[in-house]
Amino acid sequence: MQIDVLLAGDYPGDGLPKSVSFPSPDVAVLGDGFRVLSVKDLVELKLASGLTNPDCLKDLADVQELIRHADVPRELVEELDPMVRAKFVEIWDATRRGAIDEG
């Protein structure tokens, strides 16, 4: 089992400075007996990673799966960092389009 240690203030994806960075642990919300990132923070980190590192494209697919299975609202875009907003809308629209085609 591999464990990744992420440091607050470091940058996802390519590791280069950007407007999205790993948050301080104190922003985590209480889950089912443990602390987790909010959906907003998780989506931002995954999108920033997938956008800046071609080896992290799975992070974009993770956002798509989260949208699909957790019913993430399109309005979340208003809370996201501007760096990732367009990609969120693109993935959200594609995900919902697929749901409409299936229904």
Verbal overview:
- With 103 residues, the chain is mainly α.
- The chain has one domain.
- 47% of the residues lie in helices and 4% in strands.
- It is built from three helices and two strands, in the order E-E-H-H-H.
- The chain has a two-stranded antiparallel sheet.
- A hairpin with a 4-residue loop joins strand 1 and strand 2.
- It is globular and about 35 Å long.
- The mean pLDDT is 92.
Question: Percentage of helical residues?
Answer: 40-55%
How would you characterize the largest beta sheet? 2 strands, antiparallel
Q: What are the secondary-structure elements, in order, as H or E? A: EEHHH
- Number of helices, where a helix is a run of at least 4 consecutive DSSP H or I residues: 3
Give the rounded overall mean pLDDT. 92
Strand proportion, as a percent range, falls in under 5%
Distance between the termini: 39 Å
Question: How many separate domains make up the residues?
Answer: 1
Question: Using only CA atoms, what is the Rg?
Answer: 14 Å
Strand order of the largest sheet: 1-2
Total beta-strand segments: 2
| Uncertain runs | none
By secondary-structure content and strand pairing, the structural class works out as mainly alpha
The coarse overall form would be globular
Helices and strands in order, then pairings?
Layout: E1 29-30, E2 35-36, H1 39-52, H2 58-70, H3 82-102
Antiparallel strand pairs: 1-2
Helix pairs in contact: 1-2, 1-3, 2-3
Structure in a nutshell:
With 103 residues, the protein is mostly helical. The chain is 47% helix and 4% strand.
